[in-house]
Amino acid sequence: MSAKASVREVLDKVRAEGRDSLTAPEGKQICDAYGIPTPGEGLATTADEAARLAEEIGGSLALKIVSPDILHKTEAGGVIIGVEGGAAASEAFDKIIANALAYKESASITGVQVQQMVGGGHEVIVGATTDPTFGKIVAFGLGGVLVEVLKDVTFRLAPIDSAEAKSMVNGIKAAEVLQGARGAKSVDIDALADVLQKVSALVTDFPEISEFDLNPVFASPEGAIAADVRILLETGETVEPVKHSRDEILRVMNRMMYPDAVAVIGASSEDGKIGNSVMKNLINGGYAGEIYPINPKADEILGKKAYKSISDVPGDVDVAVFAIPAKFVPQALTECGTKGVPAAVLIPSGFAETGNQELQDEIVAIAQKSGVRMLGPNIYGYYSTWHNLCATFCTPYDVRGGVALTSQSGGIGMAILGFSRTTKMGVSAIVGLGNKSDIDEDDLLTFFEQDDNTQCVAMHLEDLKDGRAFVEAAQRITKKKPVVVLKAGRTAMGAKAASSHTGALAGDDKVYDDILRQAGVVRAPGLNEMLEYARGLPLLPTPKGENVVIITGAGGSGVLLSDACVEEGLSLMEIPPDLDEAFRAFIPPFGAAGNPIDITGGEPPSTYEATIRLGLEDPRIHALILGYWHTIVTPPMVFAELTSRVVEEYRAKGIDKPVVASLAGDTEVEQACDYLFDHKVVAYPYTTEKPVAVLGAKYRWARAAGLIKP
Length: 710
Hints:
Helices cover 38% and strands 21% of the residues. It is of the alpha/beta class and 710 residues long. The protein is flat, with a radius of gyration of 31 Å.
């Protein structure tokens, strides 16, 4: 019988009996079928059978109650360990049965599991659970009694390959212990990775397995063996998210983001109305396509012929922007479907966000039936700057560039707009997602991936509707373009009611953290960081290696910049003797070579220029961090101009390295930083952390995309 057939037989039997959990012997059958190592064991239904099994297996044994009604065996007095010999096993059998019946008189008892005791090495946990956002995920971490105390655990989407499995084993905080700290032998990493792969394959092949625990798994230099198995099954129906093909997504998104004709349903001539603001933004923003105001009570709005219904519009409409009360949306959406409008942008509130889930379900059903994709509801609209499209009731924005920004929240959307205006950040799009009744982040990523006007994507999100679809889209785009994510709700949601360690551990932000990293995105810790990453990442070239060098005019800044590098996972280059000597030729005797290179504060512009040139010229250096100190000898704008000039000169020669700068000084350094940013040098006043954080984000993306040579 094949492995899958063996597992199917066991699972069908369990479900036919109306159970949602497997007994330990059934769990062993599952493990045996997939080659997951477990100890030698047998099931005893009498004391005599327990004695016989004890003699056959030999050595020290653990006896455990087998009952579908008793999941927590130790709590019920259903586990006795260190049993040796037939007589002791017979006695332990009787005691376990008595304890179990005392714990739960009505319990159905299958028997007692007689299991070879295993130990030695380190206790780890290998598990899988069904996450409401991401579906099947696998977990690895420290096991045994430590698992829920230390929570040193990592997660990945299932299935995983060998490389991903090894990254899990080597990715926990205690990895050094497993790898052989203080001269100890390393555990068999390959054996642990193999167990992880097999568990991920099992839960992928059998999605009805809701939770799977191997805890503890004893990991040693000789291999890995699971001492305890717990398997839980889904009992209810699972609803799969609606899936759209990539071609279908692009067909709609291209028409929505670059429309030839826009209809405004609820257009108005009255100042203060949302339909009036949307019309003004479209007209005044320079949108060159057709604009069709829809209002049954008007003949003309802002110089444009108005129509009673979208059905009356003579030509094709690519996108309909809704600016009407929620109760009128279903009828208007039905008319959009009849007209063949591919996309509807729903600004109105009054749906699920106010508790009116029924109305939202109604419009979703209408949209699905009529083939209309919906953005929203409950959004501020969207901007597509390269098409001069400002389909929103908020203030207009027209600085074109390569950054696409999205937000689930209207308030965050306005913060994005304000930041963009203040910093003059060039954007390709700003999109509100609101309730995400239909179009969500993976639709947008699919569009931005192939959009030539977008070089970087930054997304604020509170949740993901279909985490697996998001990861698939993110893994494609991040090979070419950075994606920054600000995930709201970083604090632990609390362990959900779960019957397994893995299920309980998966109840907090660590799942999002690990799987977003698996997707290749850069996670921002806060809103300002998300916006600064979005602003800075497109300006920085991709580094060709890990060697980072700090050149600073202030020793104190150098120390703080070094601390920031450690925090961001950047590698400060160990300066070789010849390069050390070359730097020393330009700095005073009381300065300091090494890394950071301290040129001291009293040096003229020529010292800054010479050391920056050397940093750019030497191919062993891959990125530069500059620490500037405001002095009369080298004023801020002099530093900014010389740095920009030198960096541009080397770019013209084909030498383009990431250069970031921290400027300490009086208020004049603010203008200097603006000048540097304008010349593609990421620079900040009054902070050593921000420029290093942006450089760190660039490195995290480049590593995930496989663009840095080892």
